Amino acid sequence: xxxxxxxxxxxxxxxxxxxxxxPTTDMAKEALFNILNNQYYFDDIxxxxxxxxxxxxxxxxxxxxTEQITAVDxxxxxxxxxxxxxxxxxxxxxxIKSDVYKFxxxxxxxxxxxxxxxxxxxxxxxxxxxxxxxxxNQLLQDDxxxxxxxxxxxxxxxxxxxxxxxxYGGNMFSFFEINI
Length: 180
Known about the structure:
- This protein has 180 residues and is an alpha/beta fold.
- The protein has a single domain (26-177), classed as Vaccinia Virus protein VP39 (Rossmann fold, 3-Layer(aba) Sandwich).
- It is 30% helix and 27% strand.
- The chain has 5 helices and 7 strands, in the order αβαβαβαβαβββ.
- It has helices spanning 26-37, 56-63, 76-89, 100-106, 124-136; strands spanning 46-50, 68-73, 93-97, 111-116, 140-151, 162-168, 171-177.
- A 7-stranded mixed beta sheet has the order 3-2-1-4-5-7-6, with helices on both faces.
- The model has no long low-confidence stretch (mean pLDDT 93).
- This is Methyltransferase.
- It comes from Winogradskyella haliclonae.
- Keywords: Methyltransferase, Transferase.
- One of its GO terms (molecular function) is methyltransferase activity.
């Protein structure tokens, strides 16, 4: 994986093979950030990266100037890798080793962008818990976005607060907003 833009543009990051991850492809990541680039000043926002895995999305935000990034993953190896990479690049990424659902139930901090990249094999009920907890617990700023990455075979358009989705190859991003 590589960082697409910003301070660390072009830098390659190689995650240990034993991590249980499926990083967002460079093509999909570039398309996603082209969308976000038109809506946000990255140095002014707070980002929550759920099911963060390798930290791929967190690094991209940090490279573009975001300083308030929290990465949550249940896997110790993933959290350790993110911490080591963030330290090597001098990125201010806070990591939390936690079950994402438990974290969302307890969290009180609002974010401008919440990005979730759960396992593609999740059932619709597992996917639906993400926006449910985010909106019930009011974890987004008023103009914030929840973005859920999933397979193009999974449809999330029936969930509350769904706004739109974009497909890139086998990846799909579904966007959720407070006021739709």
